[in-house]
Structures are given as structure tokens and as C-alpha cells.
Specification:
This protein has about 325 residues and is α/β, with parallel strands linked by helices. Helix content is about 45%, strand content about 15%. The strands form 2 sheets. An 8-stranded mixed sheet has the order 8-6-7-5-2-3-4-9, with helices on both faces. Helix 5 packs parallel to helix 8, helix 6 crosses helix 7 (about 190-195) and helix 9 (about 235-265) runs antiparallel to helix 10 (about 275-305). The N and C termini lie close together (about 5 Å).
């Protein structure tokens, strides 16, 4: 009987308040991967210290399915920290990131993987593929935040303006191996992927509507993620602060010359209290913003030097070693 090599897809799922949906996501993964006999799956479900029964659900699945691993974190670190944790356990040929709420269109998995699996002659040759949603099913302020984050990423990471980020993405194993070399406590996965390869593409598809639960990204978490992307992979913000410093110093010098000339030409000069206060407030505000930005960098350096962990694993459940699951070949 002939043998074929089975390529492994490892799905990394960060889980938080998803006791009613994460099991359905894993069931759909099984059904979709079963469509291709030349592929097999692994699932790494990372419980990000969820306060509900999410851990019990993924632990029960892991104990009954040897291809599922449940990782329980000791504290909540956010989506990107949970994904980094999952990457350390992922051993597949392709790594797929997806949400735990069924919004990622898992039925389009093969479209997402096609640019990675195919060669350049067949529309492939890419190392990372990211789902692109023409219309996002989220609130207006989140859409606005996504646009701002996209503009910042384009500027800081030299990203193609046409390339869009989303939570449903796939990458080759060598990219994952590069990503997990980053050990600082503030990971930003999109930035890490772009730092590892320039062969990144979008695959257009429709995002699903949420059917269970509510979104967990508050304004505070969204702002924290934005600040993380703003300061983790570029010194351009500091260069902006330097530029603003030179700009305001030049403006101040010009205004000083104007005041001296007016004083010499006009013995009586009207005191401009309002304009002076306005200038002081603007310049003082800019100085405080720049000092805060520099302080953010210094604070992150301090925390990194203290070797603060990205995540702390409390327990791991299930999943036999890959060798026991006959990873290399299967008889047809």
C-alpha cells in the first residue's frame, strides 16, 4: 500500500470567556481538516486565565482527543502573550491562529493556506497569509481604532499600506521558529511576523457574526495593544520627539527675533497674554507628551532587564508526543 507524507497544521487558539464556543471551534477544525487526507491537525488551546469554565471545556477535550493540548496560564497576559505561549508548543508544518468565538471563517481554511502550500507558479510562495475582511463585524470605535493601528503599523513597521492584519492568519514553521526567539514581555505578533519575512499576503474573506458571548477587547486593552505596537519595534516615535523639539525650538527662535524687532521699531508693544498662554500650553503639552513617550520606552527597558515573563504556564493537559501520532506517514 502506498504511503503519503501528512503535513501537520497546528491551530493556536487563545481562550478567554469562551466556554460555550471554543468546543465548537475545535469541532469545526476537525471537520475541515478531514476534507484533505494529506493533512492532519493539532490544536493548542491556551486558557488566558479565563474566569469562567473555559479551562474545564478545553481540558475535557484534550483528555479525550490526543491531538489537542490545553495550556492553562497562571495570569491573564492578553491575546498576543497567549499566542506566543501557543507557538512554543506548536510543532506543525503550518501554524494557524484563530479566535475562540467562531468569528474566524474556518471553512475558508484551505483558501488561507493556499499561498503557503503552493509554489509561486501556482499563486503561492508566501510565508505568511492573513485573512482580510472587507467589512468587520465590530463596533464603530473599534473600526476607528483598527484604522489608526493600521496607519501606525504602516509607518513604524514599513508595512505595505494594502496589507491588513486580522486574527485569522497562518504562517510556515520557520517563521514561528523566528517569532519565538523574541523573549521580551511585550510581544506584538504582527510586528514579529513582518520582522521575520516580507513574503506576506492577504486572503480576502468575510468575517462571521458573533453568535455566542460578547467581545472581550475593552478600550483599555485596545489602547494597550496599540501602545505596544507603537513602542516595541521601532525608534521612530523617539525620532518624532526629536523632530518636534527642533521644530518648536526653531519657532521659538523666530518668535524671539520678531519680538526684538518689534520692540526696536515700536516703543509700545501690546502685551499678548492670551497668545502667550496658548503658546505655553501647546509647548508645555508637547513636552509632557514626549517625556511620557520617553518614559514608556525606559519603563519597558527596565521591565525587560528584570526578565519579566511573557506568560506563566500553570498546567498542561493532554496531547501525546507527535511520534506516537504517526506524524510522518499514513497508510492509504
Amino acid at each position: 500500500m502506498p504511503y503519503i507524507h501528512k503535513r501537520i497544521i497546528t491551530f493556536v487558539i487563545p481562550c478567554y470567556k469562551s466556554e460555550g464556543s471554543v468546543g465548537l471551534v475545535i469541532d469545526e477544525i476537525r471537520d475541515v481538516v478531514a476534507q484533505r487526507p494529506d493533512f492532519d491537525y493539532r490544536v493548542v488551546a491556551v486558557n488566558d486565565c479565563s474566569p469562567d469554565g473555559t479551562l474545564d471545556v478545553i481540558r475535557e477535550i484534550a483528555e479525550s482527543d490526543p491531538k489537542v493540548l490545553a495550556v492553562d496560564l497562571a495570569k491573564n497576559g492578553g491575546r498576543h502573550n497567549a499566542l506566543m505561549c501557543g507557538c512554543h508548543y506548536a510543532d506543525g508544518d503550518y501554524i494557524v491562529f484563530c479566535d475562540d468565538d467562531q468569528q474566524c471563517p474556518m471553512d475558508r481554511l484551505w483558501d488561507l493556506l493556499r499561498p503557503l502550500v503552493n509554489d509561486r507558479e501556482h499563486g503561492g510562495g508566501y510565508d505568511v497569509a492573513i485573512a482580510k475582511y472587507p467589512k468587520k463585524t465590530q463596533s464603530a470605535w473599534k473600526n476607528f481604532g483598527s484604522k489608526v493601528n493600521d496607519m501606525v503599523s504602516t509607518w513604524l513597521l514599513s508595512k505595505d499600506p494594502e496589507l491588513k492584519f486580522s486574527n485569522f492568519s497562518a504562517m510556515k514553521r520557520f517563521v514561528k521558529d523566528e517569532v519565538i526567539k523574541y523573549t521580551n514581555p511585550y510581544p506584538y505578533l504582527s510586528g514579529l511576523m513582518l520582522s521575520s519575512t516580507k513574503h506576506v499576503c492577504n486572503v480576502e474573506m468575510e468575517e462571521r457574526e458573533r453568535t455566542i458571548g460578547t467581545g472581550n477587547y475593552s478600550f483599555k486593552k485596545s489602547f494597550s495593544l496599540w501602545l505596544n505596537s507603537f513602542t516595541s519595534f521601532s525608534v521612530k516615535p523617539l525620532r518624532l520627539a526629536t523632530f518636534c523639539g527642533f521644530l518648536f525650538a526653531t519657532i521659538g527662535l523666530v518668535l524671539a527675533i520678531v519680538v526684538i524687532i518689534r520692540k526696536l521699531l515700536l516703543p509700545v508693544v501690546a502685551i499678548g497674554y492670551s497668545s502667550m498662554m496658548a503658546a505655553l500650553l501647546v509647548i508645555g503639552g508637547m513636552i509632557m507628551v514626549m517625556l511620557g513617550l520617553i518614559g514608556e520606552y525606559i519603563g519597558r527597558i527596565y521591565i525587560s532587564l528584570n526578565n519579566a515573563p511573557q506568560y506563566v504556564v500553570r498546567n498542561v493537559y493532554g496531547w501525546r508526543p507527535a511520534e506516537e501520532l504517526d506524524k510522518d506517514a499514513v497508510q492509504l
